[in-house]
Design brief:
Order of helices and strands: HHHHHHHHHHHH
Strand content: under 5%
Helix content: over 70%
Mean pLDDT: 83
Number of domains: 1
Number of strands: 0
Largest sheet: none
Low-confidence stretches: 44-70, 307-320
């Protein structure tokens, strides 16, 4: 079986043009853009830049008297000491609020993965019907991503704790000694490959596990097993080349999105607008992984046959 990382690119590009421009359907474009927006929520909710940064530690306006400036730290310390319970409660509420939003975005993104994939495969824009149809698969993906994220967080905390123990003597002395240097090196050399491996795994889940779940109508763990046995086994080398190709495509598309955002005065980076403006990129990358998967045999084909035939629009069931 010949598996190529370059052969699917022309097919993916042709499929993208067929979906978005044959003919151009603006309502469908907006709907697919919304599904792509949902898919991207787990990555931060869009391409917008970070929020404003405040440097409150260095505030010392020239108009303030030096005596007032010197008294501010003591007053702030006294206020904090007298309201410690209120501060802890406020911090806990903010933390739970942030965690709640992160889980909400992760849940919406997990459901959006299948909505966007279904729209690309069926060449249609729909929200309500696929939202309901992929409830079970979306929840399965959400739980898996949640557990995976918690496990990754625990692992990071453990590594950080071990490194802190190694640097404890240097931290107590207040000097950056050999222990602190060794701990910093160990943390960097551990977290760098771990972060790369985690990012690659998440990408493979998006590119292959989600389509396998969609194609076979199975939950995430069974889809992972199918990916391991029938896609990855015996093709680790070509899968490595695929990862490299995806990195190259990611860099190229990132440059396009960056330039496009600059040319639109950052409007093209706004949430949802970014997904609509750069929808051809999202559709192309989604088609690329599908076309790559199709090389493993007809049993893995998602697109209707023949290659660019119109899909059955009246079907309400996932392809199985």
């Amino acid at each position: 079986m010949h598996i190529s990382v370059t052969d699917p690119l022309p097919a993916a590009f042709a499929r993208m043009k067929y979906i978005l421009f044959s003919p151009f359907d603006f309502p469908k474009w907006l709907t697919l853009g919304f599904c792509a927006f949902l898919t991207a929520l787990s990555g931060g909710g869009g391409s917008g830049g970070g929020g404003p940064h405040f440097n409150v530690g260095g505030i010392n306006p020239s108009g303030l008297r030096s005596s007032m400036a010197s008294s501010m730290p003591a007053e702030a310390t006294n206020w904090v000491s007298g309201h410690i319970a209120l501060i802890v409660l406020f911090a806990a509420i903010v933390f739970l609020f942030i965690i709640g939003f992160m889980l909400l975005f992760l849940w919406l993104s997990s459901r959006g993965e299948f909505m966007f994939l279904d729209g690309v495969v069926r060449n249609q824009g729909a929200v309500v019907e696929p939202w309901r149809r992929f409830r079970i698969l979306g929840n399965s993906l959400f739980l898996f991503r949640f557990v995976l994220g918690v496990a990754m967080l625990i692992l990071i905390v453990m590594i950080l704790g071990l490194c802190a123990l190694g640097a404890w003597s240097s931290l107590r002395s207040g000097a950056f000694g050999p222990g602190a240097l060794a701990a910093l090196l160990v943390f960097t050399l551990t977290m760098l490959p771990l972060g790369i491996a985690f990012a690659v795994f998440i990408m493979l889940v998006h590119d292959f596990v989600v389509p396998i779940m969609y194609r076979r109508n199975v939950l995430v763990l069974e889809a992972l097993g199918l990916f391991w046995r029938e896609i990855l086994a015996g093709h680790a080398g070509v899968m490595g080349l695929y990862v490299l190709m995806r990195i190259v495509l990611g860099i190229a598309t990132g440059i396009v999105i960056f330039v496009g955002g600059c040319l639109t005065c950052c409007i093209g980076w706004l949430p949802y607008i970014s997904s609509v403006v750069f929808l051809p990129i999202h559709v192309l990358l989604r088609c690329y992984s599908i076309c790559f998967l199709e090389q493993y045999g007809e049993m893995w084909g998602l697109f209707p046959q023949p290659s660019l035939a119109p899909p059955e629009r009246d079907s309400q069931q996932p392809i199985v």
